[in-house]
Amino acid sequence: MRITAEWNASGGTPAIRDGGRLAVCRRCGAPNVATLGAMRPRRCRARTIALVLAALLAGRVASRPTHAAADEPPVPEPPAGAVASIVPAEALKHVTYLTGDKLEGRGSGFEGANLAARYLVEQLKAFGVEPGGPVLPAGGAPSTTTGPARAYEQPFDVRCVPFPGQGAGDEAKGQVAPTMNVCGIVRGTDEKLRDEYVLLSAHYDHVGKMKKKVFRGADDNASGTSALLEVAQAFALKDAPRPRRSIFLIWVSAEERGLLGSKHFSENPTVPLAQIVCDLNIDMVGRNKPREMDVYGNGTSPELDEAHLAAAVKSGFKFTARTGSIFLRSDQVNFYEKNIPCLFWTSGLHKDYHTPGDVAAKIDEGKVARVAHHAYLTAWTIANRTERPSFRKLDKNASSGPLGAVLDMVSPEDVPQAKLEPGQGLCLVRSVMDGTPAGEAKLQPGDHILAVGDAPLPEDDPVGAVEKAMAAAKGGKESLRVLRAGKFLRVVVKL
Ligand SMILES: [Zn+2]
């Protein structure tokens, strides 16, 4: 065996050869410059002791979170009973109900979504989760031990913009209809910390019916809704120890209509925003490889990242940390925009995304339960640490993708002045990040993007088409056909 090259390369102590074989100390592997003489045990012993001490010290440091304050007590082990209560069969039961015929794809503003919300409230009551919605007017339900009486439902109105292809004659077309977020609280135990909330979110709505077909949204997002129900029952489990901080659970509506439910909550929070220490968002977690997941939002808080990584050791997931505009396309973004640290867990897009093919039979309920386990462990750590997670803004590219704008799909029927051909789609620019290609090109909120270059956008996923084209044109230029205040423009974007 020849290893000469290495030593010299490392710039270490020049080695003395003993007949070509490198003389090293058998105990500590140090090159023995005194090969010609007896070993000098003293130096070797001191070196060994130093190594052992360093290892001990490292061990102690490793068990304490790197960002932990010196006096941070170790996080207690999560209660075994709570973890064991998260089971695939239950997760599948929830998915099966939420994708049933009666719920007609849970389009927000339609009865199907209201049935889903009612189901969530029933489950929370059965688990013993307290209501977390708006405080009820005095004289209503009796107040609870930990504060004024609340409702589970946070109602808000949504304009029923039928999704592309939903077809004429839809009775609710364009009308404003009530929908609701569903909120629950599991109160923490610590005198001070229980007024702070580890928030977990998932949207329960989907796109409803299009072209008379029901889009059941099993993965998007009955899977995340189900995982969050499993987390709720685990935290609320009778006789299981509770964490120090409180847990706030929210199932939002109207995500598919532009993140409207989480927007409504972030602007009308039922608990003070300043007391929400993070958002852990779960969206589409029941497909693709069983032990692989994507995570967005890394870097919004080192403490959150750490709790997530520690949980991954137990949940057994291989996570890929992702950046880009998908970060802007689920509910955590409305918390992020309020400077609340967040993580977004998803198993990623697949061929059945936003199609009638997204059905319960293709859901991996074992994976949904594993995601619930992961979310429970991450939340448990954050809810028990004295120090709340610090917040960091992400750099532009990490959070807004190649274009740097939040895009929404809207119905062509809603923008007749766009004069689109059948099958063509458009997307609405909801917000533009400064210093991004969209910002430099002076794209404006309210603009409608109709085409990239000469290619009109497809009706089924206009947003995806724009983002793919922007990513493909990285380092170059691309022109967008835009409708702004009734006028058609060409906007050139440098990427
Ligand atoms: Zn979704």
Structural descriptors:
13 helices, 30% helix, alpha+beta, nine-stranded mixed β-sheet, 495 residues, disordered N terminus, binds zinc ion, Aminopeptidase, Pdz3 Domain, globular, six-stranded antiparallel β-sheet
Would you kindly provide a written description of the structure presented here, covering whatever features stand out?
This protein is α+β, with helices and mostly antiparallel strands. The protein has two domains: 80-396, Aminopeptidase (3-Layer(aba) Sandwich), CATH 3.40.630; 402-494, Pdz3 Domain, CATH 2.30.42.10. The chain has 13 helices and 19 strands. It has helices at 4-10, 41-63, 80-84, 88-98, 111-127, 218-236, 260-267, 302-315, 332-336, 365-384, 396-400, 437-440, 462-472; strands spanning 17-18, 21-22, 130-131, 153-159, 176-186, 197-203, 209-210, 213-214, 246-252, 276-282, 292-296, 318-322, 342-346, 405-410, 424-432, 448-452, 455-458, 477-484, 487-494. Strands 3, 4, 5, 6, 9, 10, 11, 12 and 13 form a nine-stranded mixed β-sheet that branches. Strands 14, 15, 16, 17, 18 and 19 form a six-stranded antiparallel β-sheet that branches. A two-stranded antiparallel ribbon has the order 1-2. The longest helix has 23 residues, at 41-63. The protein is globular, with a radius of gyration of 27 Å. Bound molecules: zinc ion (ZN). Zinc ion binds next to helix 6. Residues 203, 220-221, 255, 283-284 line the site of zinc ion.
